[in-house]
Write a structure and sequence with these properties.
heterodimer; A: 244 residues; alpha/beta; five-stranded parallel sheet; 11 helices; 7 strands; B: 299 residues; mainly alpha; 74% helix; binds iron/sulfur cluster
Chain lengths: 244, 299
């Protein structure tokens, strides 16, 4: 549905001067597919299928997948189950801090269509309205075999260059932001400057900015660096005075 | 030695160190996998990781100190490699000597401290504070060991130390002559590589990988490269001091890999100590064993 509503044009092929550029791209894509650091944001019950997928029985490491602990280091964000609205805020913050190219995997039926939490007032039903999901692994909950199968699928898609959900987030940021504002209210903002990043990566398209980003700019409060005070020895005297 | 050979060795030695280091990282992960009854990563996994990290589109720098910190971390080890003799290549080892090498091996930690400091992430600051504390802990036995070996062979020149050991055959090895110092050296090695139970500054579950917490893309890639060098440097230094260096590449590599396998195997059997426990342990047992060994050596 998503694709039909907003057709995504193929990116303009920039002319590459280096004759080895293609070989190089191929190599990097291959390495990307064979080395994935994952940040498993254990949102729901599906998270329980990840430990067996990682440990001795199924051993994800033989596919080059290993857990990492901060979003900066991670390549794939695993959303393992229903996301409550409160959690979704954190998920989006986390996603925006990850370094591109980044991939989102929605595990569990709850991320696909709300699953058995369909009637809940507190969960986000469809994850791909708020984040560009590269791959869904359906099931309530999917077995580790299914998780690994999904990972292999993602590897294939990365190698062939199809898994570019992160570009979609920049290209259609207005739409994603609109859905986020619908849930969190008009004053929703994150520390990341997504529009600036989009123009940095040359991915700014008509869908990047729109009415929702304008609303964001109106309601945005400037982020200020946190003030820290150090107090040594009980008194905050100035150095010059105490010497006198 | 002509200037061309010297230049070629200066380039080749870090390169060899990097390739051997990649295999050491692979061995580390394979040993972990075997102990947990897993298959483990494929052969080229360390290389895939590094290429991927350098190929990331987003490269977040936190300022020029951050950049320089990583350069210092990798560069310190690159300099250390040229001071470590390998079979057929001495580099500038006979000009530098053991004392310079010990100094140079501290540069990466300091560079990392500068770089991580600018990231302004509390986890990173805690991590680097712990890393420097750990350095304080393992450097005491390490210096005792280095001093003992230099005293025994009567020189601080690594090339001479290796030549003396090789002249005496296996019986001339430092480990046979100074077993107590060799044991203390193993303790220091464990701390130097930051492996459990002394893995206090990476601690993923506690301080989110400490110094690496704000590193992404090529910065993390730089740290992965640094890890290769670190494993290699520690292994080769131990082999040069205690196991007679390398007669040829085959024996050399076997020895180095065997030495590095010890801390890695021990690592996966232990949990993590607290910082003060590590200092207490490091300043007690290895120092005591080392001083005892020193007393034997000096008599
Ligand atoms: S799909 Fe089932 S297992 Fe997964 S989060 Fe929803 S209820 Fe839990």
């Amino acid at each position: 549905m998503k694709e039909i509503d907003n057709p995504i044009e193929a990116p303009v092929d920039q002319s590459r001067t280096n004759p080895l550029a293609r070989v190089f791209d191929e190599l990097v894509r291959f390495c990307r597919s064979r080395s994935m650091f994952m940040l498993h944001y254990c949102t729901g019950c599906g998270a329980i299928e990840l430990p067996p997928a990682m440990t001795s029985r199924f051993d994800m490491e033989r596919l080059g997948i290993q857990p990492m602990v901060t979003p900066r280091q991670a390549d794939i964000l695993l959303i393992t189950g229903y996301v409550s609205i409160k959690t979704l805020k954190r998920v989006i913050l986390t996603y925006e801090q990850m370094g591109s190219p980044k991939y989102v995997i929605g595990i569990c039926s709850c991320t696909v269509n709300g699953g058995m939490y369909w009637q809940s007032y507190a969960t986000a039903k469809q994850l791909d309205q708020y984040l560009p999901v590269d791959l869904y692994i359906a099931g309530c909950m999917p077995r580790p075999e299914a998780v690994l199968e999904g990972m292999r699928k993602l590897m294939d898609r990365i190698r062939s260059g199809e898994a570019d959900g992160w570009k979609d987030y920049y290209r259609r940021y207005d739409w994603y932001l609109g859905n986020q504002q619908h849930l969190f209210g008009d004053d929703w903002q994150t520390p990341a400057d997504v529009i600036g990043e989009a123009s940095h990566y040359d991915l700014a398209e008509p869908g990047t900015e729109g009415e929702h980003t304008r609303l964001l700019q109106q309601c945005q409060k400037p982020l200020e660096p946190q003030q820290t005070f150090f107090q040594i020895g009980g008194s905050l005297e100035k150095k010059g005075e105490s010497h006198e | 030695m002509s200037i061309q050979t010297l230049l070629m060795e200066l380039v080749l030695m870090p390169l060899v160190a990097f390739v051997v280091g990649l295999f050491m990282v692979l061995m580390l992960r394979r040993i972990g996998a075997k102990l947990q009854r897993r298959v483990g990563p494929p052969m080229m996994q360390p290389l895939y990781d590094i290429v991927k990290l350098y190929g990331k589109k987003t490269q977040i720098s936190h300022g020029w100190m951050h950049d320089i910190g990583i350069v210092m971390a990798v560069g310190g080890y690159v300099a250390a490699e040229t001071l470590l003799p390998v079979p057929g290549m001495d580099g500038i080892a006979d000009k530098g000597g053991l004392v310079t090498l010990v100094y140079v091996m501290m540069i990466p930690s300091l560079g990392l401290a500068l770089g991580v400091g600018q990231c302004a992430n509390p986890n990173g600051s805690i991590g680097i504070a712990r890393a420097l504390t750990a350095m304080l802990a393992y450097d005491v036995p390490f210096v005792i060991v280095v001093f003992g070996v230099a005293w025994y062979f009567g020189t601080t020149n690594l090339v001479d130390i290796i030549a003396i050991q090789q002249a005496g055959g296996v019986a001339g090895w430092g480990a046979i002559a100074m077993p107590l110092l060799a044991i203390a050296g193993l303790f220091a090695l464990q701390g130097m590589l930051g492996k459990q139970p002394f893995e206090i500054y990476i601690a993923p579950a506690e301080i989110a990988t400490g110094p690496m917490v704000e590193m992404s893309g090529k910065y993390l890639g730089g740290l992965f490269v640094m890890q290769c060098f670190q494993l290699y440097t520690a292994g080769v230094l131990y082999v040069s001091l205690f196991l007679g260096g390398g007669e040829n590449w085959l024996f050399f590599l076997i020895k180095v890999f065997a030495v590095v396998a010890i801390p890695m195997t021990v690592a996966f059997l232990f949990p993590r100590y607290k910082t003060e426990q590590m200092i207490r342990l490091m300043w007690k047992w290895p120092v005591m064993i080392g001083l005892l060994g020193l007393a034997f050596v000096m008599h």
